[in-house]
Write a structure and sequence with these properties.
- This protein has 127 residues and is of the alpha/beta class.
- It is built from four helices and four strands.
- The protein has a four-stranded parallel beta sheet, with helices on both faces.
Length: 127
């Protein structure tokens, strides 16, 4: 199995636009990782966080996502903790729990980051 679990903190982002830019960056990171590791696949519960922006009644805290995250982790063979320049994974209880669970499973943990890039917000046309 060559599945990779991408973990990254999504807390403390005050505005929805900032949140969506972060999610776009996590997805961009996942795509770049897959380009450089063509035999590996990636998955992350963060890929569903866009749904939170359009479906706010979904649970947004780690209590809601914990079982799902652990199910994904249990099917992977490595964890990548992605540190976005605007987040601090070590301050995220969800990321820390994912790391602890990965250690319990004996999974290797790789910490990665990218230099901060200027990202333009998406253009939203109304009407």
């Amino acid at each position: 199995m060559n599945s990779r679990f991408i973990s990254s903190s999504s807390f403390y982002l005050a505005r929805i636009l900032r949140f969506l830019i972060l999610m776009a960056d996590v997805m961009r990171f996942a795509g770049q990782y897959m380009q450089h590791h063509p035999r590996e696949q990636v998955i992350s519960p963060l890929f569903f966080h866009y749904g939170l922006a359009v479906n706010p009644e979904m649970g947004s805290d780690y209590v809601f996502w914990k079982d799902y995250s652990r199910l994904l982790l249990s099917r992977c063979d490595k964890v990548i903790v992605y540190a976005h320049p605007d987040t601090h994974p070590e301050k995220s209880s969800g990321v820390m729990d994912e790391i602890q669970f990965a250690q319990e499973l004996g999974l290797p943990i790789l910490r990665m980051s990218q230099p901060q890039k200027e990202v333009s917000p998406p253009v939203i046309k109304m009407g």
